[in-house]
Amino acid sequence: MQKSRHSGAQSAISSFSGPHVAVIMDGNGRWATAHGLTRSAGHEAGLRTAREIVEASVREGVGTLTLYAFSSDNWKRPTPEVTALMRLFRRALLGEAKRCLENGVRLTILGRRDRLPSSLRHTIEQVEALTASGARMHLRVAVDYSARDAVLRAAAALRGDGVTREQFSELLARVDHDRLPACEVDLLIRTGGEQRLSDFLLWECAYAELLFVEKMWPEFTADDLGEALADFRGRNRRFGLAPEQVAS
Ligand code: IPE
Ligand code: IPE
Ligand code: MG
User: Fold this and answer.
1) How far is ligand 1, taken at its centre, from the CA of residue 217, in Å?
2) Per-residue confidence of the chain (248 residues) as pLDDT tens digits?
3) What residues contact residue 154 under an 8 Å CB cut-off, 6+ apart?
4) Is the beta carbon of 71 within 6 A of some atom in ligand 2?
């Protein structure tokens, strides 16, 4: 059992019950290279994993799942890889929308939109509208996402002085097109062996439990997610309190 979820700190603010799991889906390229494939083939394999993990998350009772698909710094990659990724995102959204609807999954895209191809932007709007009634799990896919840029844009949108953490969370969500307040991450998983955040959810991960996995993203399975959640439930979260205060 998860030992404590103290609400005195920034508590998770979400209408979806269940933990917020965020995943840095890293390792597609290295996995592909190791198998003699192109990096784009690695991203295709990564999409298959994402599909499996979304379904497993619904079964496991995850409330919100945020997947890091493309960082703002990823624009600096070679143009053919970026173009292939943008095409893949559009195809994935078109393919997944119906499945999300059937599974009660609300799908939204987090991040800047003004630099995305207009066809992708249009598809995002369609898919968000189609799945807006999903109440079982909120799936957020971060595309052209930079936590530092989001914090800067939210700060710039502040009017007057004095703002609560909750109000700032709302602003932070709004600047990245999320109508729900940015909810605190409970568990952050990064595959691919690196142990860094790479500009992902810096505000929302203030008290996140961190789990770094050696496997490359295309190798990550539903069983691995189950193990990660079991590990998370066994952790003792204190949110700044003394252990005795959270023991009961
Ligand atoms: C993560 O995999 C997916 C994206 C960043 C789009 P990478 O493409 O970063 O894979 P590695 O880290 O090079 O193996
Ligand atoms: C972070 O991975 C972004 C995504 C997984 C989408 P990167 O592969 O871009 O991160 P760095 O460059 O290793 O920090
Ligand atoms: Mg990487």
Assistant:
1) 9
2) 344 333 333 333 457 889 999 999 999 999 999 999 999 999 999 999 999 999 999 999 999 999 999 999 999 999 999 999 999 999 999 999 999 999 999 999 999 999 999 999 999 999 999 999 999 999 999 999 999 999 999 988 887 677 888 888 888 999 998 877 778 999 999 999 999 999 999 999 999 999 999 999 999 999 999 999 999 999 999 999 999 999 76
3) 168, 171, 172, 174, 175
4) yes
Domain ranges for the chain: 16-234
pTM (2 d.p.)? 0.92
First to last CA, the chain: 13
Side chain identity, residue 5: R
CATH 3.90.226.10 fits 16-234, yes or no: no
Residues facing 68 on adjacent strands: 24, 142
Distance (angstroms) between ligand 1 centre and the Cα of 29 equals 5
For atom 12 of ligand 1, which residue has the closest CA? Answer: 27
